[in-house]
Amino acid sequence: MSVTFTQMKNGTEEEYTYLHGLEAEYIAGTPDRILDALRRLGGGLEGYLVSRLEHSLQSATRAEADGADIEMVVAALVHDLGDELAPENHSQLAAAIIRPYVRAEATWVVSMHGIFQQRYYGHHTGVDPNARDAYRDHPWFDSCANFCERWDQASFDPDYPTKPLEHFEPTLREVFSRSPFDPAVTGE
Questions:
Q1: Contact 45, 83 (CB under 8 A)
Q2: pLDDT averaged over the chain?
Q3: Which of 1, 23, 48, 156 is most exposed, with the fewest beta carbons within 10 Å of its own?
């Protein structure tokens, strides 16, 4: 079965009920699609000592070792998920993906990590290494600075004992199976 309308405004209640059922099945597959997207980070951008996937796993491993909560571990795992489709604004794309399922702090940290990371390389590439200072008064400034210092910028080490994706799969599934935009979780 498929709908018959060619403009949304002409759809019937029966058609939208049918589509809603299909969408529910599709939404339930979100964790699988995110895992697939993470696996694709195993290829792509070259030149580093580790793949983007290894970097993401290493960031999550470091977050977990530091005692970060489930949301920040998943944030560390998916923080570069936008690299494949949006290399110039990968932080914001990754933040949009995680936003419905985590607290606002985790979303903000993922969204801003690209600017905060400039601290480590900006002076070599002609971008402002102090751009993050514009957010110095933000309540999550320190959280993002710590995310970048302890987990993100430090996770390019091929010898670091990094946990595999399978280790993080249950945690990722738990977060991305939550009811989206639950105010008790997101705080919004």
A1: yes
A2: 95
A3: 1
Q: Per-residue pLDDT averaged across 182-188, rounded?
A: 92
A 10 A CB-CB count for 182 gives 12
**Whole-number pLDDT of residue 188:** 83
Percent of the chain past pLDDT 70, that is, above it, reads: 99
Return d(Cα 60, Cα 81) in angstroms, integer: 13
Parse the chain into domains and list their residue ranges. 13-181
CB 169 within 8 A of CB 34: no
Q: Is the pLDDT of residue 182 over 80?
A: yes
Q: Which of 36, 50, 42 is nearest to 161 (CA)?
A: 50
13-181, superfamily in CATH?
A: Hypothetical protein af1432 (1.10.3210.10)
Report CA torsion sign: 160, 119, 172, 47: negative
| Alpha carbon distance 93, 85 (integer Å) | 9
